[in-house]
Amino acid sequence: MYDGHVVVIGGGYAGVRLARRLDGAARVTLVDRKEVFFHRVASLRAGVRPEWTHTPFIPYDRLLRHGRVVTGKAVRIDTAERQVALATGERLPYDVVVIATGADYPEPARFTGTTTEEAAKSFAEHQRDIATAEHVLVVGGGPGGVELSAEIRLARPDARVTLAHSGSALLDSAGPARPGRKALAWLESHGVEVRLDSFMSPGTAFGTYRDARGTIVEADLSFWATGTTPNTLWLRLAGHGDWLNGAGRVKVDRTLRVAGRTDVFAVGDVNDVSELKVTPAALAQADTAAHNIRGYLLSSGRHRKEPRLYRPTRRTPLIVPFGPADGLTVLPVPGGETAVLGSRTTTLAKAKSLLTPYMRRQLGYTAA
């Protein structure tokens, strides 16, 4: 029995989880500009190591048993006609629409183009650049910058690698100071130069970079791991700028509905929920939204479900690999304390496989 049309715009972690949760309960259409799911967690290693080039790409063809996946770009949500307009001119009717367009990440954690071939070519270019660089500069000392620096160092033990961070400690978003100290110790013990309190910007000459004190750093290759940008420009261009906050994120209430709309939801990196934007949080939001969408579609019947309020994850686990066999795991424990676990736990939990078997199963494939 199908209780309505649900159009999910965006096939990232939150969109895939929500579409799968609703498949069979509603007529689900998942729209994404990419032809495959992009497992971003594996992208940093894919940008460094050739044998990982195709690992982040998982086809959508086994995701939905009853619904369908459309490759295309959404350009407008017509709330009057309750339709999603695609760049091709196709219009998808909906009873509920979900915005799950995520955020744009800096290279190499980015799906370039729309096809697997285009994205794989981009990864191969990064691999060649890293393989020949004499000095690689990574800007940003959060989880992504630390992980990328470690991957580059292990792939290129003979190259000079510098990690520049504007803060006074690495992994400062993790809360306690111990994870940052542990990351710093690992990087320095492996010959990575770490520059703290070093806000970097491009210099006046090609291949030069300047910090806030005017110090010049020369590098023939650089990567910027300094944050993400929500993919919401299309909403602003379509006349829905009032749905966005000052940072460009979609404003939602505690049920994950877009403010003022009963039939429009937003989940994952794209919304303004105040929490660390990590994969477990995106999956939790998708589960809450799926429950509330079912309740909305059944609201006129005797099986009505009360809305579930989403509780932002204040203390989420954080896993930072240092290559495939080392890293650290920040694990919240009862009482407000935090445990910092080492290489064995991190390797088993993420570092070795980068959660690839788990995501393959989520999309209907075997773990291998």
TrEMBL record:
Pfam name, any one: Pyr_redox_2
Similarity comment: Belongs to the FAD-dependent oxidoreductase family.
Domain called FAD/NAD(P)-binding: residue spans: 5-286
Organism, scientific name: Streptomyces indiaensis
The UniProt record lists the keyword ATP-binding: no
Protein name (record): FAD/NAD(P)-binding domain-containing protein
Keywords noted in UniProt: FAD, Flavoprotein, Oxidoreductase
UniProt cross-references to Gene3D superfamilies, sorted A to Z: 3.50.50.100
